[in-house]
Structure formats: C-alpha cells, structure tokens
Amino acid sequence: MRAQFVLSEIGVGLRRNLTMTFAVIVSVALSLGLFGASLLMRDQVSTMKGYWYDKVNVSIFFCNKNDADTGANCAKGAATEQQKNDILAELHRLPIVQTVQHETSDQAYKHYKEQFGDTPVAGLVTPDQLPESFRVKLKDPTKYDVIKSAFSERPGVQEVQDQRDTVEPLFNLLNGMNIAALCVMGLMLIVALMLIVNTVRVSAFSRRRETGIMRLVGASSFYIQMPFILEAAIAGLLGAAFACVLIVGGKAILINNWLAQKIQVINFIGWDSVAQVLPLVLLIGLLMPALAAFFALRKYLKV
C-alpha cells in the first residue's frame, strides 16, 4: 500500500511539473553528455600520445661544410668521422636508447623529395645542404632532455631535435578543447542543479496540503520526502539515458563513420572506452538529482 502511494505521488508530481521536469531532463542530458565526451576525449588524447610518441625519434643533426657560420659547434666545419663514432658509441651505452639509425645526406635528400614531390620547393635544396643525422628511438620518449643535454653542445653537432614538437601543438589543442568542454559541462551542471532544486520546491509547495496531512497522521520525514526524491532521480536518470544515447551516437556517427574514414592516421578509441563511461554517466544522473532534492527538501518538509 505504501509503495503504491509513493508511486502515485511520483506520477502526480511529474504531471504537475511536466515543463520543468523536461527542462531538468534536457539540462542533465547536455551536462552529462559533455562530461562523458570530456572523459572520452581525455582517453583519445592519451591514446594518440602513446601511438605517436612511440613513433617519433630524436634527431642529432651533424654539421656539414655549409654550416661553418651557423654556430660555435660548427665553427670548425663538417663533423668528423671520429666525432660521429664517439657520439654513436655513447648513444649505444645509454640505457634509455632503443635503436640508432644513421641517415646520410643522400638519404635525407631522398626523403625530402618524397615529401615535397614535384613542387617548386623541391628544387631549392641540394643533397649537400641536408645534414647527416642519427635517428634515435628512445625506450621512453619523455626522456628527450637527456639526449639534448648530452649532445647539443658537442663539437660537430648542429642541432638536437625532438620530433614530438611537431605533434605537441595538436595535443595542446585537444587538451584545451577538453578543458573548454569541462567548463561548459560545469556551467550546465549548475543550471541543472538549480532547475532540480526549483522543481522540487515548486512540487513541495503545490502539495503542501497533502504533506501537512501526512505529518498529522505521523508519517516519517523520509517517507514524506521519498516521492519528491524519486521524481528528481527519475528525471535525472532519463537525462542520463539521453546523454548515453548522445555519446553512443557521437561515437558511431562522428568517429566511426566520419573521422575514422577521413583521418586514417589516428588510432581512435574503441567501444571499450565508451562502455566504461556509460555506467558512470548513469550513476551520476541518478544520484546527483536525488541528493539535490534531499537537501532542498530538508528546509520544507520537517516533521
């Protein structure tokens, strides 16, 4: 009988405040959708970093005969074979170095031609203008500073370059977008909480006669509050379910059917990442409105 009464009160409350309940559902859906998207974007950035950082190298470029005036390291002309051999031996002794590949000027020119093809820029460079280099693959790409500090000031070394600098701006952009999404999510979450609190207060005010009678017959405070809390929890759960639909749809349409087809060099996150986010979204969507309603009602429904 009590359960039937609580359920009937929930139905009455949802019908009376249909417009505000709909606003709560939409606000919760948008805020939790942004929350889930932010978590997935964080996983995507981590996946991309692991993928690209594993492929990038640290390049040690040697002075050639055209670099005599480019810096103190190249003041004595091109790097000697002894200098190259000494650096190679030191690289092999370093525990953070995985492999070392020697690239000659001719090989560098070949790669340059492959990159620029038949464009006018390709004819501006000759093989003797491109320096020899050691392409160093590290076991931990974040240890680039060890190589730079050890070899950047060595005689015969023109420059030590980390290829991570090429992809780092992209990661910074994605992290910035993630922070912006979290800020918008926080704003939407505040709006959703305010709507939940106002909806619960309006519902409690409109049913003050019923709650007054329940106080007189000795109903407990929790029993009086239960219909209002469940109303908020149901609205929040519906919003969370809609947020899950948005997240799954975004993964299926935006990533799988569009981005993955257009940008094939990126290793996009899989459905396992989405499956980890959805339960969290549903849990927050259920608990957040229920707790907000509980604390909002303490002032209005005291026994």
UniProtKB/TrEMBL annotation:
<keyword id="KW-0132">Cell division</keyword>
<keyword id="KW-0472">Membrane</keyword>
<comment type="similarity">
    <text>Belongs to the ABC-4 integral membrane protein family. FtsX subfamily.</text>
</comment>
<dbReference type="GO" id="GO:0005886">
    <property type="term" value="C:plasma membrane"/>
</dbReference>
<feature type="transmembrane region" description="Helical">
    <location>
        <begin position="179"/>
        <end position="200"/>
    </location>
</feature>
<comment type="subunit">
    <text>Forms a membrane-associated complex with FtsE.</text>
</comment>
<keyword id="KW-0812">Transmembrane</keyword>
<dbReference type="InterPro" id="IPR047929">
    <property type="entry name" value="FtsX_actino"/>
</dbReference>
<keyword id="KW-0131">Cell cycle</keyword>
<feature type="domain" description="FtsX extracellular">
    <location>
        <begin position="56"/>
        <end position="160"/>
    </location>
</feature>
<feature type="transmembrane region" description="Helical">
    <location>
        <begin position="21"/>
        <end position="41"/>
    </location>
</feature>
<dbReference type="InterPro" id="IPR003838">
    <property type="entry name" value="ABC3_permease_C"/>
</dbReference>
<dbReference type="GO" id="GO:0051301">
    <property type="term" value="P:cell division"/>
</dbReference>
<dbReference type="Pfam" id="PF02687">
    <property type="entry name" value="FtsX"/>
</dbReference>
<feature type="transmembrane region" description="Helical">
    <location>
        <begin position="221"/>
        <end position="254"/>
    </location>
</feature>
<feature type="transmembrane region" description="Helical">
    <location>
        <begin position="274"/>
        <end position="297"/>
    </location>
</feature>
<dbReference type="Pfam" id="PF18075">
    <property type="entry name" value="FtsX_ECD"/>
</dbReference>
<dbReference type="InterPro" id="IPR004513">
    <property type="entry name" value="FtsX"/>
</dbReference>
<dbReference type="InterPro" id="IPR040690">
    <property type="entry name" value="FtsX_ECD"/>
</dbReference>
<keyword id="KW-1003">Cell membrane</keyword>
<feature type="domain" description="ABC3 transporter permease C-terminal">
    <location>
        <begin position="183"/>
        <end position="299"/>
    </location>
</feature>
<protein>
    <recommendedName>
        <fullName>Cell division protein FtsX</fullName>
    </recommendedName>
</protein>
<keyword id="KW-1133">Transmembrane helix</keyword>
<comment type="function">
    <text>Part of the ABC transporter FtsEX involved in cellular division.</text>
</comment>
